[in-house]
Amino acid sequence: xxxxxxxxxxxxxxxxxxxxxxxxxxxxxxxxxxxxxxxxxxxxxxxxxxxxxxxxxxxxxxxxxxxxxxxxxxxxxxxxxxxxxxxxxxxxxxxxxxxxxxxxxxxxxxxxxxxxxxxxxxxxxxxxxxxxxxxxxxxxxxxxxxxxxxxxxxxxxxxxxxxxxxxxxxxxxxxxxxxxxxxxxxxxxxxxxxxxxxxxxxxxxxxxxxxxxxxxxxxxxxxxxxxxxxxxxxxxxxxxxxxxxxxxxxxxxxxxxxxxxxxxxxxxxxxxxxxxxxxx
Length: 280
Ligand code: AMP
Known about the structure:
By secondary structure, this protein is an alpha/beta fold. The chain has helices at about 5-20, 35-45, 75-85, 95-100, 115-120, 125-140, 150-165, 195-200, 200-215, 220-230, and strands spanning about 5, 25-30, 50-55, 90, 145, 170-175, 235-245, 260-270, 270-280. It contains ten helices and nine strands. The strands form two sheets. The protein has a six-stranded parallel sheet, sandwiched between helices. It has a three-stranded antiparallel sheet with strand order 7-8-9.
């Protein structure tokens, strides 16, 4: 599997593909790849002639007390997964390949970044938008693939692409779950066996919310209260937020009367997990 760390080499390769008239898909990741990432790569391989998978634990999207140092990394295993999935190139830069010592340009998307994770992770989406803009400029793909697992991120990237005329099609892909319902995440590896069981309260709450909405309940506060109650039954769980927002602008919304996102962040011990459902 070809692994490139230098942005200019990636740009040169993509230029070659373009000369041959080939289409290019991009799957941005932080590595430690699992079936969720693989579903994005599979879709990208189906829809594009060449696929670049980026693997970069982006320091500027982590707050000072977050898990940048401990974030799991395994480039060998990742490389096997990407090769088997049929992608063409891994772009795995080092932080110094992406950020000059005097780096000073950031992309800030307002409104859609403000609620949910934006409240508790104040620099997060600015870091995500900055690095994704850089990836878009380096790779210049036709399409880029993002998981609904990070639903707010998907909304923020869509807004950024529209506002800044990137001219890239953003493809949102459904959440891939473990057999017992837990949304797949690189961070699940932090969980002890006891915490792993406790973590099921997130997907249980999501299912409860979905049942209510699909059964015709439109009172957002009632739906959120029932979902919170499911999580509160789990002693190891500490809720950061459970909220309903409008899927269009990620502003708090109290009624199911249009496209909605219901999202949560919950700490299980030291591990922060997220989950959600969308009804469009
Ligand atoms: P990450 O490596 O966690 O930054 O994730 C890279 C991409 O994979 C993001 O677009 C995520 O939304 C997506 N992703 C992560 N986990 C899942 C999952 N369980 N199902 C679908 N997509 C996922």
